[in-house]
Design goal:
single chain, alpha+beta, 18 strands, 283 residues, 8-stranded mixed sheet
């Protein structure tokens, strides 16, 4: 999965807020297939390989249920290494009576679901990048029904045993309140390129000609309000830069466009124009 390693910039850990940590932990272990890396009373860090944190769930004091029509998380996307693993996950999700959506996006095949608090999740596999169709700097993406029977057949009836160790956080898709401002922030500030436009309401951005590391949409409405600080949804997500020089350049570029880039112990903190919090690091 070379799109999720140096020299690319990609999504690392995603942190979400939930109303009941134990309930969410059970869901993410038993339904999604994560393992626990660290756990405390109000926080759990989840992994697929026992080493790399991919998802952190927190239960803030006074947490509020998810409210609609705000900026924030649309979904985070878990990338499986093969269609066979997607088939195994689909078998398991169906056996678990989980309500699912799906989409064949030409570059990928995806399953969609929500956690107990309504946080959006995508589980997907990529088609080989050699099969993606590019028109200049734009990759062709669409949405057609997934051939579920063919995906299920790929599993060879092997049992589901959780997420494979080489699972990664494939991308994150966000609600924003101003698409033009968001594009400028992610391109001019963070260094991502637009690779697909869906009319005037969604764009998909990446580094290294991936089909997308970042999705942005205004489907909750242009000018949508930010969620309350302790509301269920996205707390923050991490972008991993390939080097210290690339990380420092991003901080300089953010400040040049008037965005924040506050130094932290191992990188920088910033917010996009819709209030989505981002941690910038390098490994």
């Amino acid at each position: 999965m070379g799109f999720h390693e140096s020299p690319n910039t990609y999504v690392g850990n995603v942190t979400i807020k939930v109303t009941d940590l134990e309930r969410s932990l059970s869901f993410y272990k038993e339904v999604i297939g994560f393992d626990v890396l660290e756990q405390s009373r109000h926080k759990a860090v989840l992994t697929a390989d026992g080493k790399v944190p991919l998802l952190t769930i927190i239960q803030p004091e006074g947490v509020q249920a998810k409210q609609g029509r705000t900026t924030g998380l649309y979904h985070f996307a878990i990338l499986l290494p093969s269609r066979k693993e997607l088939g195994k996950s689909l078998h398991h999700l169906l056996a678990s009576n989980i309500q699912l959506g799906s989409g064949d996006h030409e570059v990928s095949e995806a399953l969609y679901l929500s956690d107990p608090d309504g946080n959006g999740i995508e589980i997907y596999r990529d088609r080989p990048s050699s099969d993606w169709i590019w028109n200049g700097d734009q990759v062709r993406m669409g949405t057609e029904p997934v051939d579920a029977r063919a995906v299920l057949a790929e599993s060879d009836e092997e049992p589901w045993t959780g997420l494979p160790a080489d699972t990664v956080m494939g991308h994150i898709h966000l609600h924003v309140n101003d698409l033009k401002a968001a594009e400028a922030f992610y391109h001019d500030g963070l260094g991502f390129d637009v690779v697909t436009r869906y009319g005037g309401q969604a764009i998909f951005m990446s580094t290294g000609r991936y089909h997308h590391h970042i999705g942005l949409n205004t489907w909750n409405g242009t000018g949508a309000p930010r969620p309350a600080e302790n509301q269920v949804g996205l707390d923050a997500y991490t972008l991993v830069y390939p080097s210290q020089s690339a990380l420092d350049e991003a901080a300089v570029n953010l400040r040049a466009i008037g965005a924040s880039a506050d130094q932290s112990e191992n990188g920088f903190h910033t917010k996009d124009p819709s209030g989505n919090k981002i941690k910038l690091i390098t490994l």
